[in-house]
Write a structure and sequence with these properties.
With 246 residues, this protein is of the alpha/beta class. The chain has a domain at 3-102 and 172-241: Alpha/Beta hydrolase fold, catalytic domain (Rossmann fold). The chain has helices spanning 19-25, 50-63, 76-88, 107-123, 126-130, 142-153, 157-168, 197-206, 222-225, 227-241, and strands at residues 3-8, 31-32, 68-74, 92-98, 184-189, 211-215. It has a 6-stranded parallel beta sheet with strand order 2-1-3-4-5-6, sandwiched between helices. α1 packs across α10. The longest helix is centred in the middle third of the chain and has 17 residues, at 107-123. The protein is globular, with a radius of gyration of 17 Å.
Length: 246
C-alpha cells in the first residue's frame, strides 16, 4: 500500500505555498499538493464546495498512486481536511490541522465572505493582492510579503470568489472531532490574528490523543514564516504515524 503526504492550501493562495514542505519531504515519501478549483491554473468548476475540494484531493492522490496519506491542511485547507476525513477516511493515516478551526462561520462571518465574493467578481482580485488578509505577522520578511501579494494576484477572481462562498457555506465540523481515530497534530501560532490559538486549540482538546503545538512569533501562514519548525513538527508526526523515521 503506497503511503504519502497530502498538503491542502490556504485561501486565497495555491499549492506553491507548500514549497518549503515539498522540497523537504519529496525525497522521503510521495508528496501531493493539489490546487482547489480555479487556483494555481486548475480548472474552474461551477459552484465548488469544500467537499468538492476534498474530492479533488482524492483524485490527486490516486493519480500519484497513493493509497493512504497523512492529510495536512492549513486554514481553508483544514476545512478541506475535515471534509476529507468525513468522506474518505479509509485513505487517512493521520491528520495535521494547522491554523484552522472546526466550527462554521457565524452569520457576520458568512456575510463578510459573501461580500468579498461580490466585490472580487466586480472589481477583480488586485485589491485583495494589494491589501491581503493578515496572513503574516508584523515581523515577516518583506520578500515573503511580496510572495503573498504576487500569489494572490495570480489567482483568477472567480476562483477566489467561489472559494469564499464555499467557506461561508461550510458545515460545522465540531461534532466530528471526537470520532477522529488516527494520530492527529494540531498546530497554531502565537501571532495568528485570523484564526488565533484560542480558536484552534479546542480541536486538539476534542480529538482523542491529539497533540497541540504552538509556534511562537509567527502569523497565519506558519508553514512559510517558520518552515524549519513546521517541518520538524511534520517530520515527527510522520514518524508517529509510521511513515518516516525522525
Amino acid at each position: 500500500m503506497a503511503e504519502g503526504l497530502l498538503l491542502l492550501h490556504a485561501f486565497p493562495l495555491d499549492h506553491t505555498m507548500w514549497e518549503p514542505q515539498v522540497k523537504t519531504f519529496e525525497g522521503v515519501l510521495p508528496v501531493v499538493a493539489p490546487d482547489f478549483p480555479g487556483f494555481g491554473g486548475s480548472p474552474i468548476v461551477q459552484s465548488p464546495t469544500i467537499d468538492t475540494a476534498a474530492d479533488i484531493a482524492v483524485e490527486a492522490l490516486r493519480a500519484a498512486n497513493v493509497d493512504r496519506a497523512v492529510v495536512c491542511g492549513l486554514s481553508m485547507g483544514g476545512y478541506v481536511a475535515l471534509s476529507f476525513w468525513r468522506r474518505h477516511r479509509e485513505m487517512v493515516a493521520g491528520l495535521v490541522f494547522a491554523n484552522t478551526r472546526a466550527g462554521a462561520d457565524d452569520d457576520a462571518g458568512k456575510q463578510r465572505r459573501r461580500e468579498l465574493a461580490v466585490r472580487v467578481r466586480s472589481e477583480g482580485q488586485q485589491f485583495l493582492a494589494d491589501e491581503p488578509p493578515a496572513l503574516l505577522s508584523e515581523n515577516a520578511p518583506s520578500e515573503l510579503r511580496e510572495w503573498v501579494k504576487t500569489c494572490i494576484a495570480s489567482q483568477p477572481a472567480e476562483a477566489i470568489a467561489a472559494a469564499s462562498e464555499a467557506m461561508a457555506d461550510r458545515v460545522d465540523s465540531t461534532a466530528d472531532l471526537t470520532g477522529i481515530t488516527v494520530p492527529t497534530l494540531v498546530i497554531s501560532s502565537s501571532a495568528d490574528t485570523l484564526i488565533p490559538p484560542e480558536a484552534t486549540r479546542p480541536m486538539a482538546d476534542a480529538i482523542p490523543d491529539a497533540r497541540f503545538e504552538l509556534i511562537d512569533g509567527v502569523g497565519h501562514l506558519s508553514n512559510r514564516e517558520a518552515p524549519d519548525r513546521f517541518n520538524e513538527l511534520l517530520r515527527e508526526h510522520l514518524a508517529r504515524v509510521g511513515f518516516a523515521k525522525q
